[in-house]
């Protein structure tokens, strides 16, 4: 009962905020699974490309909860999602070790970028990530953090120590929101933020932000699919989880991922990685 109430509330909120999910006009799904995923897969538009194809190929309808990776993992931990598509590797590894999740498989990657106003008051253009953050802190230029325990937030928190900086004060601001909203706030405040490249490119036309620091090997952004099991809760649907995970790492879905964004942005927004040695990514 707890899973049902929590998921219904969360899903309705996600549908209202993102427009993703089954609408009232659609017939009831005979097979329906819950996907907990990151806001970057939603805000970039990737889910709009993948989920209809998955439903067509498998017969499974998908109810999507687009939240930060930390929240998505927590939904899995509580048995309130059937399958996860997330990008917080350290948290994922710890979660899988707990024993309630099933297989964790590599799906794709892109990268993180530091974006900011064209005027670049902290002069970070072409600096590596650590140097860029050090300059932002020294200038006390506005930096907008997601602050939501997402994969992006986890990556950001890991970068500050490398810059020798403990962020704080009026220049360091937190939204507690997803990537799309955080980019909007950074744009309005003429501030800097860390973004996955896909969401930035998808929303670039509405933002007064430019990519100022990129290409740092430490900014790799890797996504995995994690199947949940009955050990997380009696209402988890392992069959649906496996169907989605098998589908997203299979060649047809990997081709869709590899082509997504190419026509509109002149480059793919994600690189498909199923079956690759993860240690070679970004090389």
UniProtKB/TrEMBL annotation:
Coiled-coil annotated spans: none
Annotated PBP domain residues: 25-250
Pfam families: PBP_like_2
Signal peptide: 1-24
Source organism, top-level taxon: Bacteria
SUPFAM superfamilies according to UniProt: Periplasmic binding protein-like II
Protein keywords: Signal
Family matches, as PANTHER family: EXTRACELLULAR TUNGSTATE BINDING PROTEIN
Name of this chain's protein: Tungsten ABC transporter substrate-binding protein
Organism: Herbidospora galbida
Lineage: Bacteria, Bacillati, Actinomycetota, Actinomycetes, Streptosporangiales
């Amino acid at each position: 009962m707890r899973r049902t109430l929590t998921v219904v509330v969360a899903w309705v909120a996600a549908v209202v905020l993102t427009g993703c999910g089954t609408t009232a006009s659609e017939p009831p799904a005979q097979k329906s699974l819950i996907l907990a995923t990151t806001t970057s897969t939603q805000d970039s538009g990737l889910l709009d490309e993948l989920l209809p194809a998955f439903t067509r190929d498998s017969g499974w309808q998908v109810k999507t909860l687009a939240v930060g990776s930390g929240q998505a993992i927590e939904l899995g931990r509580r048995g309130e999602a059937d399958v996860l598509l997330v990008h917080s590797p350290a948290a994922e590894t710890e979660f899988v070790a707990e024993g309630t999740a099933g297989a964790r498989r590599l799906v794709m990657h892109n990268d993180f970028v530091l974006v900011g106003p064209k005027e670049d008051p902290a002069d970070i253009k072409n600096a590596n990530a650590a140097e860029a953050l050090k300059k932002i802190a020294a200038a006390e230029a506005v930096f907008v953090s997601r602050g939501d325990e997402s994969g992006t937030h986890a990556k950001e928190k890991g970068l500050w120590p490398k810059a020798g900086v403990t962020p704080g004060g009026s220049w360091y601001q937190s939204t507690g929101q997803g990537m799309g909203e955080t980019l909007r706030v950074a744009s309005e405040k003429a501030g800097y933020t860390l973004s996955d490249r896909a969401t930035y490119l998808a929303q670039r036309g509405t933002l007064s932000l430019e990519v100022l620091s990129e290409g740092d090997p430490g900014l790799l952004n890797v996504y995995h699919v994690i199947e949940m099991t009955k050990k997380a809760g009696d209402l988890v649907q392992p069959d649906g989880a496996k169907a989605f995970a098998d589908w997203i790492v299979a060649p047809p879905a990997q081709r869709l991922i590899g082509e997504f964004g190419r026509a509109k942005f002149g480059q793919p927004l994600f690189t498909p990685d199923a079956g690759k040695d993860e240690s070679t990514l970004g090389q």
